[in-house]
UniProtKB/TrEMBL annotation:
Major location (coarse): cytoplasm
Residues annotated for Mg(2+) 1 binding in this entry: 420, 427
Keyword check for Aminoacyl-tRNA synthetase: yes
Catalytic activity, reaction form: tRNA(Lys) + L-lysine + ATP = L-lysyl-tRNA(Lys) + AMP + diphosphate
Species of the source: Microbacterium halimionae
Record text on cofactor binding: Binds 3 Mg(2+) ions per subunit.
Highest taxon of source: Bacteria
Molecular functions (GO terms): ATP binding; lysine-tRNA ligase activity; magnesium ion binding; tRNA binding
InterPro entries with a match to the protein in the record: Aa-tRNA-synt_II, aa-tRNA-synth_II, aa-tRNA-synth_II/BPL/LPL, Lys-tRNA-ligase_II, Lys-tRNA-ligase_II_N, Lys-tRNA-synth_II_C, NA-bd_OB-fold, NA-bd_OB_tRNA
Entry's family note: Belongs to the class-II aminoacyl-tRNA synthetase family.
GO biological process: lysyl-tRNA aminoacylation
Record protein name field: Lysine--tRNA ligase
Amino acid sequence: MTNTPANAAAETPEEEIFEQKAVRLAKRERLIAERTDAAGGAYPVAVAVTTTIGAVRARFDGLEMGAETGEQVGVAGRIVFSRNTGKLCFATLQAGDGSRIQAMVSLASVGEESLQAWKELVDLGDHVFVHGEVISSRRGELSVMVSTWQIASKAILPLPNIYSELSEESRVRSRYLDLIVREQARETVVARAKVNQSLRQTFIEHDFLEVETPMLQVQHGGASARPFVTHSNAFDTELYLRIAPELFLKRAVVGGIDRVFEINRNFRNEGADSTHSPEFAMLEAYQSYSDYNGIADLTQELIQNAAIAVSGSTSVTWADGTVYDLGGEWERISMYDSLSAASGRSITPETPVGELVALADEAGVDAPPHATHGKWVEELWEHFVKVNLVRPTFVMDFPVDTSPLVREHRTLPGVVEKWDLYVRGFELATGYSELVDPVIQRERFVEQASLAARGDDEAMRIDEEFLRALEHGMPPTGGMGMGIDRLLMAITGLGIRETILFPLVK
C-alpha cells in the first residue's frame, strides 16, 4: 500500500531501492499468476481507453462539488499520488502531457476483492487504466468514480518525488524522469516541436523545399570546426560526421532548387558548455537571386513567427520570468565600426596585425595560435562589443580571411557580406551573400589549406567535388544557418542542455 509520494530514486539509499524493487517484482509475479487470458505476461497488450485525461478535463472542468455527470469514460495514466483508506482509495493519474485526474476506488463501486487488490498491487509510478463515471468529489476535485480497473504496466523502480526539484545533472541524465515530474521539461519538448513546425510553415509560405543531405561525408566542410572522424568498413575509407550541410545544399542550388532548406543534425568535436553541444540541430537555408540582406529579413521573420507559435507573441517569457522582446525591426551594425566605437581606436581591414595584438594585450584578450587579422578583429569585437548587446542585433560585414565561403563586400574592400545574429548575448544565426565564383572559391580553399598545414584543426580543406559543382554555375544566393537548440534558448531562456531532449553526457 502506498500513501505518500516516493523519494527521488537518486536520493534514496541503495538498500531501500533494492527492497522496493523486490516488493514490486513480487507484485509483478502475482499479476502473472492471476492472468486468466491467453496473452500471458504481467500486463495487458492494450487497454480500452475511450478518451484522454486532457479531453475529460477540457469537457468537465468547473463541475460543482459533488456533481455527477452520468458520463462513463475509460482513461489511463501514471499514478503520481496515492492515498488508501478503509473503504475508499484515491489516486492521481497523470497523462504524458501532464494533465491529471483523480481516480476514486470505493468498496461500493468495485467490491471488496477488487478494492483489496488495488491496495495490495498498485504503486506510485504504475500505469493504470480505470473505467467509470466522471464526477466531482465532495471537495470539488474532478474525478472518475472507478467501476473497473487494470494495471497497464508496473513501475519496478520508485519515481522521484514530484514535489522536489531534480538536480540539473539528474534531469539531463534521466530525462524520462524529468518529463514525468517537471512540467517545464514537458513544455520545452512541446515548444521545440512548435518551433520546428513554425519554421517549416514559414519556409513553405516562401516557396522553399526541404531536403536531406549526407551526415557521413568523405570530406568535412561548410564551417570552421573540428570534425568527428570514423571509418567505413564497406568502403575502407575514413569518413567524417558532418559539421555543416552547406556544401551539399549549395550543390542543390546549382542543380536548380532555387529555395532550399534543411533541419538536421550537425556534429562538431569541440567543447561543451551552456551554449555549445557536440551534437546539435541546425537549420540552413539558401535563396537564389538574394543576398545577405534578403536572408536577414527572412531570418527575422522565421524567428518572430517561431516565438509567436510558442508564446503567442514576439514578447517571450524566459524560465526565470524575464520578458524578452523579439519584435520590431532588428538593428544592423558594422563589426568594424562598432569595434572602433567601443575600443576608442580606428580599426579597419587595413589595420596591421601588430596593432591588433597590442590592443588585445592592453585589454587582456587572447586568440588561438596562428591568428590572422580577421581572427584578432573578431576576438576584440567579442570583448568590446558583444557583452553590451541586449536587443536582437545583426552584426554585419566580417573580415575576409575568417569567412572563406562568403562573397566580398560590393563596396568595402577587405570585408565580406556576412552577418551574425546575436540574441541574449550569444550568436544565434549567421548569414551570407554566398561566394559563387569557383575561381575565387578555389583561392580561398588554398588559403584555408595553408592554415591547416600550419596546425589549424578548424581550417577547411580543398573540396574538388564542390568546386566542380560551382564551375557549372551557381546563381547569386543568400544563405543562412541557425542552431535550433539556440533558437529554443532565445525563446525559453534555458541552457542548451535543457533544450535538447537527450543531450550527450559523459
